[in-house]
Design brief:
With about 140 residues, this protein is of the alpha+beta class. Helices cover about 25% and strands about 40% of the residues. The chain has a single domain, classed as YjbQ-like (Jelly Rolls). The strands form two sheets. The protein has a five-stranded antiparallel sheet, covered by helices on one side.
Length: about 140
């Protein structure tokens, strides 16, 4: 069985941002040489997420609106975590959106439904962060 590991790095320009990383993950699958197996993609930071959904701008805005209703960024004083940092909302948003995805690889490709894409969700950005891609298979 083959095993492959790579870190993808991101620097967002805003506090919250969604990035479609499906092409980056597919490059990793190609580099791994795995034709049949599994691909784990996970955020390596507690204020970021990896999830699968549709790449549609209206949906992305819906996420922003919904997450801000669930865990509003401000006022910072509403959170016990906030003191040295002001990112309690980002921790909560990550919990809702999830840490990782595991995807099937078939014939060297992500085995997805018609609209599925992998996203990196940043909730406390403006600094360099990473995602782990781990692939195993034959």
């Amino acid at each position: 069985m083959k095993s492959y590991r790579k870190e993808l790095w991101f620097q967002t320009h805003s506090r919250r941002q969604l990035i479609n990383i499906t092409p980056d993950v597919q490059v990793c699958i190609h580099e791994s040489g795995v034709q049949e197996g599994l691909c784990l993609v996970n955020a390596m930071h507690i204020t970021a997420s990896v999830f699968i959904n549709d790449d549609e701008s209206g949906l992305h805005q819906d996420y922003e609106t919904w997450l801000e209703k669930l865990a509003p960024e401000k006022p910072y004083s509403q959170y016990r975590h906030n003191g040295f940092e002001d990112n309690a909302d980002a921790h909560l948003k990550r919990t809702v959106m999830g840490r990782e995805v595991v995807c099937a690889i078939t014939k060297g490709q992500l085995d997805f439904g018609p609209w599925e894409q992998i996203f990196y969700g940043e909730f406390d950005g403006k600094r360099r962060k990473r995602v782990l891609v781990k692939i195993i298979g034959e």
